[in-house]
Amino acid sequence: MRRTIVDVAALSALAAAAVVVTGCGAEKADSRGDGRTRTEVTNGPGIVSADPLCPSAVPRYGAEPSDDPAATTGTGHPSGAPLPLPGGEGPAKDGVRITGLFAGARDHRGDCDPPSSLSAEFEITNGGTAPTTYTITFRVLPGSGGAMETAEKTVLSVRPGATVKGTVPVGHLPGDMKGGARVEITKVRSVPDDEAPSAGGPCPASGIRLYADDGDAAMGLRVMSLHLENCGTEVYRLGGYPQLQIQDESHGRVDEVRIVHGDEIASGTGADGRPEPVTLKPGERAYAGLVWRNTTEAGTPVNAPYVRVWAKPGAHPVTVTPELDLGTTGKLGVGPWKKDTASGSTGTRPSTTPSTS
Asked: Which domains are seen in the chain, by residue range?
């Protein structure tokens, strides 16, 4: 999955070029004056549909494309760059809204070339009280078939009450896509900046980095590791288990899940064993395993994207996003902190071929 980091300072420059097409769920006369109509459709939170590609030869920015590769249109779009497609502005999903779709390009004659890519324009409004980093997953569903594609974009440090805009390439389209295309926001994840996990860059004020790896899955068993690095200048001591708080999509606490020792879920995962004191000199690392099953039987499955982690009592919390799919098991296993002795490694990932207990 590709990830693009947005420079928030640069996002403000995009605001003037943002295309916001209003209205949804109704057929309207096209205001471009070419006599065509369009159907603006929204299909639930965060979903917006596009008309067939290159639906009009009418210039959108007050100037015809130029043969000069350096020429630009009225709003700074390069000649031959994708033109915005009409479509309904999607309703907000967790503070994120799709505001425009781009596909296809016109050649120097103004003819519609077969499109090869699709981009979405979006905006984020931070309704919270702290600067927040957002990670958004988009999906394109081609209107006339073809494989679905996904894209992920991370926007750093959106201030409380602020709205920022950006664009993201969301896929390459097969053929001429005469049936149009649909883009949807499938997932929005947000973490307050002061609790963001850190795997690199400047050392946090706490003197430790803490983050989660991507984890592994086998036969319904999920295994993931929390990694901790002492990037400070003093010795850092750990003992016992990390403290965890499971959170739902709204960052509300999930109390119906019991946090147990890792070997209660499965043995041989790296999340078992007895806790022992761990002393980390500057530059040394430790890890602790998370393990759960996604078994679903009677009851309501629990899906909780966030886990708030305290490395030890009194430590500053860090929020990781393991996307817990706990089924109806009602349990999350956690292992004790263990020193990572693997040279040059970011941690020892537990096995995904454990024996059940």
From this structure: 3-191 (no CATH), 197-356 (2.60.40)
